[in-house]
Amino acid sequence: MKKKALKLLIELRSKHQHNKVKGFNFNNLSIKFASGDNFCPVCQKTTSILKTQSKTCYSYRYGIFRLTERISYCKDHKYVMNTNNIIKYYSELADEIVCDDYKITYDLIVKIGLLRYRNHMQLGEIQNSLKYGYASIDLPISTIGLIGKRFLEYCKMLHQKYENKIKAEILSNAGYTLHFDGTTEKQSNVIVFVVKDSISGNVLDSVKIKSESIDQIKPVIEGVVEKYGVPLLTQSDLKPGFKTCVDEIFNKKALQVLHIYCNYHFLRSFDDYFKEDYQILKKQSTYSRLKSRLSTLADSIKFEKVIDLKKCKLTKLSDISDYYEKNENLTHIQGLILQICIKWILKYKTDSTGKGFPFDLPYLDLYIRLINAKKFLEQININDEHKKNWDNFSNIVMEILTNESCKKSISILKFIKDWFQKLRVVLYMQSGNEIRKNYSPLSERYKLSFTQLEQIPDNIEMYLQNISNQIGECQDDRGKEILLKFQKKVNKYKSNLAPPVHTYCVNAKEQKLILERTNNCLEQSFRTDKSMLRRITGREKLTREFDSVGELIPYYNSMKNNHIFKFIFEDEDILVQEFASLFFSHKNSRSETKIIELDTMKSNCKHDEKLVLSA
What we know:
Elements: H1 4-15, E1 29-34, E2 48-59, E3 63-73, H2 92-97, H3 106-117, H4 123-132, H5 141-161, H6 163-172, E4 177-183, E5 191-197, E6 203-209, H7 214-228, E7 233-236, H8 242-252, E8 258-261, H9 263-268, H10 271-287, H11 290-300, H12 317-326, H13 333-346, H14 362-377, H15 384-401, H16 404-426, H17 450-473, H18 477-493, E9 501-506, E10 509-514, H19 520-537, H20 543-549, H21 553-559, H22 566-570, H23 572-597, E11 610-614
Parallel strand pairs: 1-3, 4-7, 7-8
Antiparallel strand pairs: 1-11, 2-3, 4-5, 5-6, 9-10
Helix pairs in contact: 3-5, 3-23, 4-5, 5-21, 7-8, 10-16, 11-13, 11-15, 13-14, 16-18, 17-18, 19-21
């Protein structure tokens, strides 16, 4: 009879969703459970009822019902040896439905959790879905929020349950890479510190810490190493203390583990070299109202037909030049070309690749476009009809170009950018023909070939030699200062920029793998986690939600697509059973320990559950 009555109840509810079937109200049910173990595993005598406990439960499948459970015991073998602890026998079926100290059933936890974190529904939407949908349960929004958090807590427990499978996967890969980093939100008092393996994609640990000091992160990394073994390498950004921390951990074990600095973060650390001069350009643009004056001038040139630069494929200055040559005889062409050039200048942000400062310098791109457009327009013979607009444009440009501080900053920024771009080429982190909309800051295009990986150390040495030669020839003090800074920083980090080739065997065949050289796996996780929080809250600021569930979300997001856990999250019934097993197995393990303490080897046969439905 086990589970048959509950299946019948689910079928009835699905047929009569609004709880109306011949005057029978499904939300007034009382479900009684008794232990399937109605005999003592030691003496085989029939057990007696110790107590009966009841509570009102909320379930997506069964509605609101009163659960009554009879807990039994053996009169002759009541206590654990040498203690006052009573050996209790519980209902297995009740344990599969709801946890001892909780009124919300596992299936409702799963339903709310998936609606929130898989379907990205907000709390109010989930409340209406439960109230007017199949469940017909009206829960407060605050309760739904707590249930959603409990779902994530169960996901973390599920991750811990399957740690043995994660270890087996690490073993099959002949090791793991230990990536670690922290993330936070504005006005938040906590940092979510995550440790991840980039080979398998598994989150190995996720905790809240107050700061990224050595004292805070060291126990976390030590716990991961103790649990999963010594990693192939460790990797982080350039925050102070990160490398020192891992060196202390492995030096204590007399081990040499290579620490790799994220190549992207290494390059981004050169932003200080650009800031001073870049701010001069930015302030000059704001002070002179450059963009608004250009826009006003472009709008003042009126034509019957508006030219769309993108549709006409006029996205480069060379395209505009070709367009002029083809239409040179048109009477209005000079005014039109001026307007097109100004619009092209104002589209300066398209030169950026979306990687942020200092990879992209939009204000420098603005000034370079301004200068190049002026050179092109000076080659055109202007007639009297368009001379006024032409002069206005020339005055705007000259106001910038005659500013000494602005001219010097443009020159310095070009110089710094040139050596920065050379360094990107050396590390195979060059921009190439990147299209902004297609690539994230840590793009997959930065993966290396085996040949490129071998070339990086030699490339760095050649780069340093070129800098040394340039320093000897450089007559400008500011330029020499910049080159010395480049030389010092590259020398400091050069031995921690290229990961080794990882060799391992699969089915007696040798496999080679280039390990990740960026923290892409963590950066993408952080973006995904925060994007999810913004979608389910509808808010930009995530301080409260981040403090509440920030360290739990990485487990869910890494598990739902991982092959170890994917089949669980694709089937709600399996997920419900897994959540129930987290607590049922814990209770069983305690019972087994008690029986072992009684020193018995007798069989523990199971009988059918006793279940009664009444209204």
